[in-house]
Amino acid sequence: MSTESTITIGLLLPDVLGTYSDVGNATVLAQRLRWRGIPAEVRPITAAETPPTSYAVYLVGGGEDTAQQFAADWLRRHGQLRRALESTAVTLAVCAGLQILGRSMSDASGHHYPGLELLDITTAPGRRRAVGEVIATCAIPGVGSLTGFENHRGVTTLGPGSTPLGRVITGIGNGGGTEGVLTDRIIGTYLHGPVLARNPALADHILHQVTGQVLPPLELPDQAALRQTYLQRR
Ligand code: GLN
User: Fold this and answer.
1) How many Å apart are CA 82 and CA 102, to the nearest integer?
2) Does some domain include residue 176?
3) What is the mean pLDDT of residues 142-170?
4) Is 62 in the pocket of ligand 1 (CB under 6 A)?
């Protein structure tokens, strides 16, 4: 039996931001922990709940404009969770999730609303929806190229103090050539896929932050082959 304590992955609002199957990122993190003998559980946190704030890692996914407005309000109402995301947890935020952690957003109908201000970014609608495959470099050493699928209207502008997660090779990402945002505690990205299934090194980077351990590599030939297929499409 393992003597390690269980790592709980907090899956925020799967009932609201579940449109793009980003919930799969939780499965990937949990399974990659279990394969290394570390007990893990996924804890979905729905809109009806008061969110637990003690988890090491939180995930927030993509969704439609109305769903993301609801999610932004919900997150703002739960200030203790905001503090956890700011100071104790590691967070992966995808697309709508990325946008709502920023300063503000506007949507296609012209509605302007505030975000959580955890990231120095603002988002406004672009002229056309960005839909398709993305390949980007990644600013995190050792992660290599990122592959994913994007489907969004928002164009995200990074403030002067912000570091992009990567640079776009194929696709749109934030718009303006960058993809996502990276801070000490938050990885924000436009990439669906789910992104951690397509980019296992990014999953292991998060798990390294969460566990403090260098995790042994996993040999998953099918996954490596699929990843190569996507990366060769540039
Ligand atoms: N509604 C947002 C946009 O279109 C986010 C979409 C998403 O999460 N895929 O920009």
Assistant:
1) 12
2) yes
3) 97
4) yes
